[in-house]
Structure formats: C-alpha cells, structure tokens
Amino acid sequence: RSFQMEDDGFTRVWRSKKQRTVGAANGTAGKPLKTAPCTTRVDGDEHDVETTMKRAVERMEKDQLLSAWMRREVDRALRGRPLAQVLILGNGNFDGPAEPGADQLALALGVAESFPSATIHFQDPQCSTVERAWLEGRGIVMREEKGMTPPPMDEEDACRLVFFIHNPHGLLEELLRSDWEWGGAARSVLVCNDYGGWTDEEFEEAVDGRMPATREVVRRARIRSLPSYSPLPFAFHQTALIYLSEDARLPDTV
Prior knowledge:
Helices cover 32% and strands 18% of the residues. By secondary structure, the chain is of the alpha/beta class. The chain has one domain: Rossmann fold, CATH 3.40.50. The strands form 3 sheets. Strands 7-6-5-8-9-11-10 form a 7-stranded mixed sheet.
C-alpha cells in the first residue's frame, strides 16, 4: 500500500472551533445539547502572509545560530557535490503568527539562497490559495502530487535537500522507498524527525513494522540534532539533519 500525504493527517489544520447546539427529539426541544464541534479555518490574506513571513525571517536572522549551523552542516553533508533540489514537504500554513510553518519555511528558503542553481519544490495539500501565490511569486515549483515520489535529479552526483519537519513516519518511509531504486536515497540530505538512538523495536512499532527503508538509512547515517531555536522552540523540536556518511552503502533492495 502506498502512503499519501492525507493518510497521516496532512489535511487542513483547523484553527478555531465553535460548539454547535441542537434541540433534542425526546421532549427537550429548545434546550441546547452539545454536539461535535464545527470547525472553521480562516485563511490569511496576502498581507497576513507577507507580515508573517517577514517576522519569521527577522526572527531567524536575529537568532543566527540555527541558520548558520544549518548552512555549515549542509555543506558538510554535500561534500562538494552539487545541490540540485530543495524539496519542502508538509510545511504547514504560514499565514498567521501562531504558525510554526512560517519559521520552518524561512529556514528552508534561507538555506536555499546559498544554492542559487537548486530548484525549490513545495508540496503540501493544505496550502491556501494566497500562500500558493506567495510561493509561486518567488519561483517555487508547486507539486500537485499526493504521493511521495520526489522529482527526478538528472545529474548523477547531484544531491537533494529535503525539509520534512515533524513528518509522519509512514510518509518519510514512502519517500525513501520511492527514491531507493535509482540511488536517490543515498544522495538525499534530510531535515526531519530525530531518529538518533531509535531501536529496531521502535522502528517496527512506529508504522506497524513498515519502516525498513528509514531504518536502513538511519543505521548508516550521520545524525545531527538541530540546535535550539529560542524564538519559537517547538518549531524545530526533536528535529535532526540526517545524511549518509561518505563510506556508507545501501543494499540494492529494501
């Protein structure tokens, strides 16, 4: 079975809730009874997106530690190889001050600036129309795919930087499995959940034993936990940079 982004909760994130009340049919008409909440998310407008992202970039620049660390570690992971793609998956909304996706996106785009030849791809089914327009206005490729097959890389030695922060385990597994056959998994640098120290049992329990690709990569990988980000600590909580060491070799199949 193939995972899709909706399978693990990547649908709309609802911000505000209101309780509905109805009259009962058993003689209590007119008396409010609680039912399941009605949920409504009000998307931000262009001004909201611009303001939110401007503040996120300002926080990132003021902090300095995380962005400088990330650029240094990505250079180390690439080992002189070209970076062909920056792939941003499941980022979440970035149209309001309570959205951690704004700071996560600010980090990804800030790192991408150091690699002007790399194309930037964005995939998230909950992206609003206004957010989409903001991204497209910056030359970012919007991916419509629901599955996790990444865009191909033409250069044999090219690498891909994947931002998949706080990802559902099954979706990362699908990404790595789809990338495995032609060697893309060995050339992917991941910013994702911190799997450092995970046991075989934890991998098996995470998605009912369906994480062989993630487990094989993590076994051979260098795992660098991201430093704390004081402006918004939960935005990068338990997040790590994961990439294969130079002498690591993956099996032909998984």
